[in-house]
């Protein structure tokens, strides 16, 4: 692997989340469930699932801003979650690779709404969430 390929690979690695595709309003990631994120039942903890939804759900709004012709740093300097409504539908187990897909439903001037889904390789839903985010405008100072 060349130095450039290694840098690209490292840039795609984010808290164990690997970015597979990013396009305006959509982010597709993969994540391998580590044993440190398991609950007492031996599967992915609900709080860890919520954290994954928050991380990818927040990031997808930056793809929407870039798609509108402005780099994310000039259109949204920070964001804050407003609401997460999560339906837990199945379990994810240790060392299982899951897919996390986020799609922007609406990105307004101050509030954005996305849907985030976690799926098994088979396509079966693990969790589905509606994620609302406050999109703080960057300072003009």
TrEMBL record:
Sorted UniProt keywords: Acetylation, Cytoplasm, Cytoskeleton, Hydrolase, Lipid metabolism, Mitochondrion, Nucleus
UniProt feature coiled coil, ranges: none
Alphabetical GO biological process terms: lipid metabolic process
Subcellular location per the Swiss-Prot or TrEMBL entry: Cytoplasm, Cytoskeleton, Spindle; Cytoplasm, Cytosol; Mitochondrion; Nucleus
Source species, domain of life: Eukaryota
A Pfam family that the UniProt record links to this protein: 4HBT
Reactions it catalyzes: a fatty acyl-CoA + H2O = a fatty acid + CoA + H(+)
Gene3D superfamilies: Hotdog Thioesterase
NCBIfam families according to UniProt: unchar_dom_1 (TIGR00369)
Function of the molecule: Catalyzes the hydrolysis of acyl-CoAs into free fatty acids and coenzyme A (CoASH), regulating their respective intracellular levels. Has acyl-CoA thioesterase activity towards medium (C12) and long-chain (C18) fatty acyl-CoA substrates. Can also hydrolyze 3-hydroxyphenylacetyl-CoA and 3,4-dihydroxyphenylacetyl-CoA (in vitro). May play a role in controlling adaptive thermogenesis.
Family: Belongs to the thioesterase PaaI family.
UniProt name for this protein: Acyl-coenzyme A thioesterase 13
């Amino acid at each position: 692997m060349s130095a450039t390929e290694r840098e690209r690979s490292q840039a795609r690695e984010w808290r164990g989340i690997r970015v597979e595709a990013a396009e305006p309003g959509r982010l597709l990631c993969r994540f391998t469930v580590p044993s440190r994120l398991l609950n007492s039942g031996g599967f992915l903890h609900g709080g860890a699932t919520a954290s994954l939804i928050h991380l990818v759900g927040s990031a997808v709004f930056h793809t929407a801003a870039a798609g509108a012709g402005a780099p994310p740093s000039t259109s949204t300097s920070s964001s804050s979650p407003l609401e997460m409504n999560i339906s837990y539908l199945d379990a994810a187990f240790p060392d299982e690779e899951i897919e996390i897909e986020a799609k922007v439903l609406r990105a307004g001037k101050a509030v954005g709404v996305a849907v985030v889904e976690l799926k098994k390789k088979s396509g079966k839903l693990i969790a589905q969430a509606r994620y609302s985010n406050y999109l703080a405008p960057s300072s003009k100072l």
